[in-house]
Amino acid sequence: xxxxxxxxxxxxTPGMLQAMLQxxxxxxxxxxxxxxxxxxAKAATMFGKEAALFCPSGTMTNQIAIKVHTQPLDEVIxxxxxxxxxxxxxxxxxxxxxxVNLIKGTNGKITAEQVAAAIKPVxxxxxxxxxVVLENTCNKGGGSFxxxxxxxxxxxxxxxxxxxxxxxxxxxxxxxxETGESTRAVGEVFDSISxxxxxxxxxxxxxxxxxxxxxxxxxxRVRKAxxxxxxQAGFLAAAGIYALDHQVSRLKEDNDRAKRLGEVLSRQPYxxxxxPVQSNIVIFDLKAPWTAESYxxxxxxxxxxxxxxxxx
Length: 312
Prior knowledge:
Blueprint: E1 2-3, H1 14-21, H2 34-46, E2 51-55, H3 58-69, E3 74-79, H4 83-86, H5 91-96, E4 99-103, H6 112-118, E5 128-135, H7 148-161, E6 164-169, H8 172-179, H9 183-189, E7 192-196, E8 207-211, H10 213-225, H11 234-246, H12 251-266, E9 271-274, E10 284-286, H13 292-300, E11 304-305
Parallel strand pairs: 1-11, 3-4, 3-5, 5-6, 6-7
Antiparallel strand pairs: 2-8, 7-8, 9-10
Helix pairs in contact: 1-11, 2-11, 3-10, 6-7, 8-12
């Protein structure tokens, strides 16, 4: 079976499994798991930040960041395709009591001019614009990515208007292997960063939230309140360390294969269009009489799994 549903269906390599078996562990709730501590220090150093926090999922790291950066009755500004809006069950409202101010960007990407125009004036009857979230790469945008030259003007707007800037960097390394930009340069333009270890990097579980010491100290308390405190999590953290040490460069292989797949699909008579393939995500539309259901069944009979995109 060839499973192309998501880059989350990866499994640990033999080397990763060996690293997990050999991990030294403790109790992470007490800050006493040496492997978790090593992973957090490694990630913080990579992005030039002071501290990091290991969490079970990218949804949790994003939701913690939103909670720490905002107060009830604030709002977050993001593209309409953003993961925090599309795929996190309205957690911004449930966890933080805030609103969302959606921007219609291009393939999930927004501009500094759009951000500036979206910031609300301060009136009693309006939420306070407090946080901007960028997703890099953008899942629903077809794996589109920002370059640093596109992010810096947004950072400037946020600094001038007193807003925090968070990166949902679930697939940030897929972007960086294309742009050649450094993790430290990314760290310089964001107040907080979320990265995922369990997608193309191949770890079985885990994401990291990265920021200042003060920010991460608050984030640890929110993680505990959300039920994210873990005990001997070093077995999972060891997989994350292995992933960062050995798997990042291989994401270029994923991106290149996705582009080749997009090229082949674009030549098929049953394909109406293929969205621009910029990293490791391929989105295409079918021509009648094919439907998503019939095409998925057709591929499944031949040992290939893909998934249908739903919603706007």
